[in-house]
Structure formats: C-alpha cells, structure tokens
Amino acid sequence: MEISSTSNSGMQQINLTELSMNQLGQLKHQLEQELTLFQESVQTLKIAQGKFLDSAESVDKIPLNESKNLIMVPLTSSMYVPGMICDKENVIIDIGTGYYAQKSIASAKDYFKRRAAFVTEQMEKIQGMGAEKTKIRDTILDVIELKLNPPKAQ
Q1: pTM of the full predicted structure?
Q2: CA distances in angstroms from 20 to 15, 45, 79, 104, 120, listed in the order given
Q3: In angstroms, rounded to a whole number, what is the distance separating the alpha carbons of residues 108 and 115?
Q4: Would you say 45 and 122 are in contact if contact means Cβ atoms under 8 Å apart?
Q5: DSSP result, 33-45
Q6: pLDDT in tens, 115-135
C-alpha cells in the first residue's frame, strides 16, 4: 500500500508496508492532528459565514420607505438600544480588523454576499483536503491492522 502527496518540492510516495509500527503510529497521529485542525477551521468559517449572511439580511431589513427612522441597534447578540437612521441611502459596514467603510445599501448587500460565497468556497476546499487526509488515515489504520494480524497462509 502506498500513499502519495504533493508538496512544494513535487510528488512524494511512501510505501506504508515498509514503515515500522512506530512510524505508522506517528504518521497516524500527525494526520489526526491535521484533521482536528481542519474541523476547527471549518467550524470557524461556518461562524464567519453565518455572520456575513446575518449582516446581509440585516441590510435587507433597513426600512427605506417608511417615515419612521427609529431602529434597534445591537450592542451585543442579546442587548439592543434604540437608534435613529440618519442616512437611508448608505450604511457603514465592518470590513475587518477594526476598519469600517461607508457603502450604499446595494453595495453592502453585494459585499456581504460575496464574502459569504468566498467563505463557503474556502470551507469546501478545506473539507476536500480533510476527505483526502481521512482516506490516508484509514489506509494507515488498515496497514497497522494488517501488521498486527498478518494473513494466515493456507
């Protein structure tokens, strides 16, 4: 059984049956750490994706035609204070790392949808890499089991 992986220096092939049990165990441990990291990354990206989608939805809910300019402004996820909309044409959005930008309503909606799509794309890439690593780990587990319980000759 062999596994292949690409790296910056090119293709690398490892014949798993030639590795010692200790080396197989270390390789399995390393793959499990990588899988854990991928799972944590996907969870973090899901949270970011949800925030972008929530922000896009919030921009959609801004009352454009009503004469009332009163809204509830979120301070935290559970605490709101009354506020007033002064400019119904533009919003100020958080673009990350403490920076804010003034954008039109349509531009803000587009921004949040593009960011959510980008995060979704990154999640799919990570999930693909995770699936590859899972296959490799499963192959390593098969080799370990094969070495622990060699097939009996008939």
Answers
A1: 0.76
A2: 11, 37, 58, 62, 40
A3: 11
A4: yes
A5: HHHHHHHHHHHHH
A6: 999 999 999 999 999 999 999
